[in-house]
Structures are given as C-alpha cells and as structure tokens.
Specification:
Length: 363
Amino acid sequence: MVNRVDFLSAGFGAGRAAAPLAGNGSADDAASSATRGGAVRDDAELLDAYSQAVVQAADAVSPAVVNIEVQKSNGRRDLNDGPNRGRRAQASGSGFIFTPDGFVLTNSHVVHGADSIQVALADGHRTAGTIVGDDPDSDLAVVRIPHADLPFLPFADSAAIRVGQMAIAVGNPLGFQCSVTAGVVSALGRSLRAGSGRLMDDIIQTDAALNPGNSGGPLVDSRGRVIGVNTAIIPSAQGICFAIAANTARLVATQLIAFGKFRRGQIGVAGQNVLLPRWLVRQHDLLQDSAVLVSGVEAGSPAERAGLSEGDLLVAIEGRAIESIDDLHRYLTVERVGTACELSVVRDEKLIAMRVTPVEKRV
C-alpha cells in the first residue's frame, strides 16, 4: 500500500507542466523569478540556522548528560524458592550533571528504591552513584558521583521561557546514548500527578520526542541552558511530552543537597474532594463549589490539637479557598511551618474558624 503524499509546491499538477506566470515577459518575469529565488534562499538559510542552533546546543549539553542504570530488589517473597527468588529488577534512565563536583539531577522514579546505581559518563567512564536526596512528590532526585571538575549544565529562568521557543531534549532513550530530539515549548503551566499521587504544577509541555530512558534528562534551550527535566509522556498520543520546570528543579535540588529531602508542611489530616451543596455555598457566601471532606485526623497532629474532626469540611485557609487537597498542599510549604493560620471549617452546617499551626512533614 502506497501512502498518499501531497506536495504543496505552487503551480504543479498531476502529469502537467507548471503554468507560466503572468507578466510582461521581461522585467516583471525577472523580478518575479528573483523573488522566488530569494524566498528559497531565505528558507534554506532559516533551516540551516535552525540546524546550527540544535547542533551547537547538543555539542554543549551532551558531555554533561549521563546514563543511569539501577538495580532494585523485586520485593517479592517466593515461598517455593522459585526462579524469582533473589532476582533483582534492572532499569535505566538519564540524568545531567549540574555542579562541577559531581551532583547529578534525575527523576525520582528512576532511582527510588535502588539497591545500586551505576552512572555512565559521556566519555565512557562508569562509576558508582549514591542518592543524596529523593523527593517522589516532585519526581526529582539528586545522585552524587565521586568526580571533580566535571562539565555541568546551568539552569535557565523557566519563568522567562515562551510558548513556541525551541526545546531540545538530550538523553538515553531505550539505551541509545546521548540521543537528541528537537521541538518547541508547546504549553506552559500544565499540572501532572507524580507517582506518589501529589499534583506537580508548573509543568512544561513539549513536542520534542521522548521515549522510555529519557526520564531525568535535560530539556534545554538553544543556548544549552536547562529549562526543564524530562519526566513523562502520554503513550497513546504523539508529540505530547512533559518536563519539570527548571525553577522548580533548582529549588528542589537545593533542598535535597542541603537536607536530603524537600521540606513541606502538614497539619495531619486525610481528606477527599467533595462538591458542596448550592444552598451551603449561598448560605455562607463561599467562593467555591467544592471543598475537602476530612476523612481522618492523625493522633497528636496539629489538626487534632486545633479540634478538627472527621466529617468537617475544609473550605478556606487564611482566607484562601480550599477546593481540593491540592490547594491545601500548595499552601503548606515549609515557610508555613510553625506559623499559626486560620482554618475555615463547615461543621453541622455552621461556618467556624480554627487556629492550626503546621509542622514539618515527616518523610
């Protein structure tokens, strides 16, 4: 079966020569021909400039991109001493060096739970890596390798990137070392669920092709600066890939190096998102149609000390509407730890206020 190809060059038909252009046969024809020739040259120059930008970025970035191979216990208990007993699962992903003294940034889902980590550098050297910090909620992790004076990649300000600008992905998809794909930033400000279930905000969407093994590799601009960390694709779609924004990655990486974890606040409740009855919204002049229904309160937690009970509806914190668990997560940053805040709660159809002091979340 031959696929149909539609050629878009103007003036060509099936089995017929191009019709002559209208003109006076002299100056007009010459000018028209020059214009067409100039357009062809301009297009060629633009394509060549695009190629040069990708080549230059790839040359600058590739030495700092690494392949990460991990071994993990399969976590299965085989009472019959079968073939799976003691077997380890192997997986691989990508990462990139972001400091000259050997700190490597990658995805949490690449290295989480790893028994051993091997890092292959672009020059062929292989070395053992150790996890410095791991944050499944942001799907980021930092690995350290015992090397110095390494090539490293700088971060760009991801708040300054624009839809439509060039995006270049470098990684090791399916084990193919330092593969380069190019596209554009398709959209900004997407949200995506991490493997832990927590919502990740400020996600970059790109059409630069990603495949299994690209996870943890850099998404860079035409100057070779990291604008995102490649993290996910939609398998059933084409050209819909996602990266964690560089500003988020830099913030998380800094805390992972300093504390071994990303610090967040918590108040000690379990909850679920529910729709609010219209009469309840009108009765209390609420700003939203949904809230968080408390389904459990941790013993000894700030929520218990504040008087929260199962069945309460959390509708606002410090005057900010809580429409979902994600809104509560966004508010409970490490800066809120130790600072009392006002929680607006609906209980028995009455709107009441409580004071709660978040504590640091345990990992």
